[in-house]
Task: structure prediction
Amino acid sequence: MTDALIIGGGSGMGLALARTLLAEHLDVTIAGRSADRLAAARAALEPAAAAPGSAVAPESAAAGRIRTLRADIGREEDVAELFDAVGPVEHVVVTAADVTGAYGRSADITASAARSVLDVKLLGAWLVGKYAAGRVTGSLTYTSGINAYRPNGSNTIVAAANGALASLASGLALELAPVRVNVVSPGWVDTPVWDRLGMDKRAAFADLAERLPARRVGTPEDIARAFLSVLRNGFVTGTVLHVDGGHRLV
Result:
């Protein structure tokens, strides 16, 4: 049995979670759409993993093993093939998202860009839940975001998709029980996605950090630790865990 499957684990929060789970001596499979990103992730993670047949001593490396699989969770056939390839799995975490062209006022967002957000963030998440039945033994955890709770007028479709994950998790927590289904909702986190948004990231982070009760933006490792706590706690299901430095309060 695979210990953990991370869908969208090729970068950012998913990659940090993979590294955290490997350090916990878990076998991890990461899945994503980009072969290049998966290859880079594997190269980054293999020094922290004992590959099959490795003679590396446990004292110098985690016992967890890493493998990668290509899959687009916006395509049902990919999701079905992914679970067939992985087989029984204890924990599944979904961090995948596609927000290309989805930021701005609704009047300026194309319907195709909006559908791309929903295809991955919501319908893709639902497809994972659909094929998780009978395959996942422990937990299924989705990734939402602060924009679901503090929209700002330029992220409406992203906020809608993220907000819907709470309802999806509630429904699946009943459908898939005793498998636990939850959502982790990060605040602003310093990940590569910010570099593709065409904004002054450093200035935006500094401005928000002054207002946040935590006085800083998040790191991928902050979110990875939150995921780990949800995976470990067998009495948490149908819940949204907010890891946002107090962003909902300001």
